[in-house]
Specification:
single chain; about 60 residues; mainly alpha
Length: about 60
């Protein structure tokens, strides 16, 4: 999985971000420990979660 930057996360809808978060989680779980792919997936999850937190709860 490619890294999802904060800028890219900000340009996505909330529904898209939830889908990307699931993708990043699965990529993190499947990647070998210490690999570049695992670090990118973890940073992507952080970026996506930060963007979702900035948006607040949705009704």
């Amino acid at each position: 999985m490619k890294l999802v930057s904060r800028f890219e996360a900000a340009s996505r809808s909330t529904a898209e971000l939830h889908g990307l978060l699931a993708e990043a989680f699965n990529a993190f779980a499947a990647a070998p420990r210490g690999s570049h792919e695992r670090r990118d997936a973890l940073q992507s999850m952080r970026n996506i979660e930060e963007e979702l937190a900035c948006r607040g709860p949705s009704i």
